[in-house]
Amino acid sequence: MPDNPDAQPDARLVTSSEPVTLPEKQESLFQEVLVTLGKQHVPFVVAGAFALQEHTGICRWTKDLDIFLTAENAPLALKHLASKGFDCEVRDPVWLYKAHRDDFFVDLITGMSNGAIIVDDSWIEHGRPAIVYGISTRVLAPEELIASKLFVIRRERFDGADIAHVVYGTGGNLDWERLLALAGEHWELLLWALMLFRYVYPGQTHYVPPALWNTLLERFSKEVANPNLNAKFRGSLVDDRMFAIDVNDWGLENVLEEYRSNRLSHVSPAKASV
User: Rounded to two decimals, what is the model's pTM?
Assistant: First the structure.
């Protein structure tokens, strides 16, 4: 049941292939960002709504332009955007840098907020050529797009449908070995996402190779048959607020803090500054 059954749905959240027209000022600003970073040879790929549209045909209104790049290149990107009159800040050195002007925002993203998945040079190298608002650039490859959404499973936002749409929209034409490698130790979230895909699109089960189904299900069966009783609680990696009681009241491990601390140890103050 919805929290408020009388609430009207937000039309912007309804999936559609209907093209979205941004205000001219916003489109011009996004173009300026892409041209500026391109001319300055800052390695990056466009993510967010633009990458989703490229791989699925879903058109989604967005106020932000999402850029994926490495933590090493984020300060350089902010420097060049600041020279163009953008107000820039390091919102969270673990994963998020921001630039804004005229009420429009550019999110410079270097990984997931929990520090579990990190953008490296390979994410940029695997980017796909695309035209975004008339500018030749590159968008996030579908494998990285899926990986970037594995942990977006919070109460207030769930990207499982996006993952299902990417698998369906690509016809399963993905580098599955790479996707498995990107998921790494968090492969169970990939299995969960693919189980949702299978439930939604049972007639397209074959889009996921049988070998991958077997690999993931065999891993899962072994874990269930031989559980590690000393394994740490991982709920905070999923949603630190919904699982706050586990850490604060029940004394379970705060793995989120460990992951973020480890990530911060690799991002020096010099690298994180604007």
Answer: 0.93
